[in-house]
Amino acid sequence: MDGELIPKAADILRKAKRVAALTGAGISAESGVPTFRGKDGLWRQFRAEDLASPEAFARDPKLVWEWYDWRRRLIAGCAPNPGHNTLAKWEKVIPDFILITQNVDGLHPLAGTTNLLELHGNIWKVRCVNDGAVSDNRDVPLREIPPRCPDCGALLRPHIVWFGEMLDQAVVGRAFAASAACEVMLVVGTSAIVHPAASLPLYAAEAGAVIIEINPDPTPLTPHADVSLRGPAGEILPLIDREF
Ligand code: BJW
User: Fold this and answer.
1) How far apart are CA 208 and CA 159, in angstroms?
2) pLDDT for 51-85, tens place per residue?
3) What is 5-33+80-120+167-243's CATH number, 3.40.50.1220, 3.30.1360.120, 3.10.20.740, 1.10.150.320?
């Protein structure tokens, strides 16, 4: 990687008042949470449509919940890494900083980020299929599979956005507004192929934001990025912070 790029990114961030960050599974990779795509990705072992779709849940809720129970146990043993921690720190020093994540693992709030939009939900929340009531559930392992609503006995489902499902429109609206308003958007550890999340940096760029991408590999966003930092987020973000 060009050694000048880290100071350049730090300089851009230091001068900015409104910064948005969009993160994906890659930021949690160094914490031990598997990504979705790529050589060790979850979708190498499982077909997305067999487990992360409303049709899969309707067909076999037990199978879907066994997969989530396995992931919850895995994530419960993971801690935020220096990438998460650096973004949490920047929220405190940059005047207007918002973090938009596609991750459901809850590691950003654990690192201390508070101004957070979770686009795809949270693996530690469950939703009653009957009345849509959302509640926290931290049971590891789950007490029963599939879990049932304590109030009405209906099935509970993960409070996660599956393929083909609508995202929470209020959350998406805030994410697009933040993308249009930011001066700089950091795009960290996402394959940039799942929409509408993948549209956010393009929207920000059209509105004049500088796009900084951090990823070991190129993505469809790379040609649109002003600065591309090739490497793991847990190393690159602290390096930028040192120059900040
Ligand atoms: C590192 C690293 C390190 C590794 N440091 N980096 C427009 C065009 C085409 C299709 C659509 C469209 N609009 C909607 C769609 C359909 C669909 C979609 O986008 N499909 C695409 C795949 C083409 N979208 C939807 O269905 C969405 N719903 C919707 O839009 O409703 C309206 C609608 C429906 C249908 C048609 C049209 C409109 C919902 C999307 C929900 C996504 N849900 C998932 C699964 C959740 C299940 C669960 O977690 O249990 O969310 S999919 C999965 O992908 C997960 C992730 O949040 C999401 C993004 O993945 P991410 O984060 O990018 O991870 P990876 O693994 O792909 O990439 C990791 C990256 O990290 C890589 O680049 C590595 O190089 C990098 N990396 N180590 C930094 N150390």
Assistant:
1) 34
2) 899 999 999 999 999 999 999 999 999 999 999 99
3) 3.40.50.1220
CA-based radius of gyration for the chain:
18
Whole-angstrom distance, CA of residue 103 vs CA of residue 101: 5
What is the per-residue DSSP string for 61-80? Answer: HHHHHHHHHHHHHHHHT---
Residues contacting ligand 1 via CB (< 6 Å): 24-27, 29-30, 35-38, 41, 52, 102, 104, 120, 160-167, 189-191, 193-196, 214-217, 219, 232-234
Q: How far apart, in Å, are the Cα atoms of 91 and each of 8, 19, 240?
A: 20, 9, 15
Sign of the dihedral defined by the CA atoms of residues 81, 84, 87, 91, in that order? negative
pLDDT at res. 1? 67
Strands (E) across 58-217 are located at 96-101, 116-118, 121-128, 134-136, 156-160, 184-188, 210-214
Question: Closest ligand 1 atom, CA of 68?
Answer: 50
Question: What whole-number distance in Å separates Cα of residue 7 and Cα of residue 15?
Answer: 12
Active site residue 195: no
